[in-house]
């Protein structure tokens, strides 16, 4: 049978774009469908605009210390509308770049929503398209809890389109999305409250990272309700009211309420039941180590599949899929030492095992080394910010299993350590490495 394409990709996010361009480099015919802006969540509603807001908020934080560095004090005003217009303009340029990349790679872009007709056929805008291989890369979306008044809340998607900065901001959820936005809004001068289901924020990170970030945010004035949930949201004359149940019963007033309680895969409207692709009870597509579903010609990568929900992971999965299927070079993604970061203030980052994970696997053979101190920038600037550095080791040779940090530039520092940990470095290797002085990262060499 002759197909329209050798590969057709559903979704032009990080994973889909990477797969399409890599596959096209092998000379195969590739098509890709996208019904929204190119780049997916990361480029349009996630990583990129979020990091730009982080940078904007940093000016507010640094301005608080500027007079200690010789700058005269003056009144500043942050224009949210002007800023968001600049962000939108930048995102438009990114989308244009993605479109040019696809065109240069020889990938056909079809605007529209693709649904399955059969194992090799898709329908897009009433047009039927056939393909030998089909890759699903549709990503995920914010999920909403089933509580009265949830329609008055917003998700991370709407955060980038707020018409004005709220004076009172409530976040439901203590994961990295909720904590990052709570940190940003706090820096802009908003009164922030976080409602967290667990005893501590940032589930999945090392406990010391979780504790230090929470401590830093609390010192900046963010209020936390732990082991609590939102019971109901009500609209009132002065904004919104959130009824909180849990360890403490309370009612909190807000101008905006962000729900950041998790994400759900965008798989329910694809027509997967027509072709028999297996999903778990949350709608996530089950795949093997090569990204293949239970249907041999249908694959999935990124947030809609049963693996890590991180942008660089989706990109790596897309490239690995293309190399395996079209490059005849079987390649799988290593998920063991994937670095990750929380772009709050203070910033946190980790790579490798947490202390708890290491102890569960290696028991008493695990040894941890850590330090906490006030960096030079904070010392001179009169800030209470502290840095925390930690490594997790095991065995007589003290092989480093994980590295964790809270403090300025944590993400960049941990990123570099990720390569070393993958290569099996030991604490002795760190001890014998000469650091750059005065820097925060040099403390990893002196633990």
How does this structure look, described?
With 447 residues, the chain is α/β, with parallel strands linked by helices. It is built from twelve helices and 21 strands. The model has no long low-confidence stretch (mean pLDDT 96).
Summarize the structure.
The protein is of the alpha/beta class.
| Unreliable stretches covering 5 or more consecutive residues | none
Largest sheet: 7 strands, mixed
CATH architecture grouping of the largest domain: 3-Layer(bba) Sandwich
Helix content: 25-40%
CATH class descriptor name of the largest domain: Alpha Beta
Distance between the termini: 63 Å
CATH superfamily of the largest domain: FAD/NAD(P)-binding domain
Number of helices: 12
Q: Count the E strands.
A: 21
> How many independent structural domains?
3
Q: Give the radius of gyration.
A: 24 Å
**Residue share in β-strands:** 25-35%
CATH topological fold name of the largest domain: FAD/NAD(P)-binding domain
Provide the fold topology.
Blueprint: E1 5-10, H1 14-24, E2 30-34, H2 40-45, H3 47-63, H4 80-105, E3 108-111, E4 114-118, E5 121-124, E6 127-136, E7 140-142, H5 156-159, E8 168-172, H6 176-187, E9 191-195, H7 207-219, E10 223-225, E11 228-236, E12 239-246, E13 250-254, E14 256-259, E15 263-265, E16 298-300, H8 311-325, E17 340-342, E18 348-352, H9 355-362, E19 366-373, H10 376-381, E20 387-394, E21 399-406, H11 410-422, H12 427-431
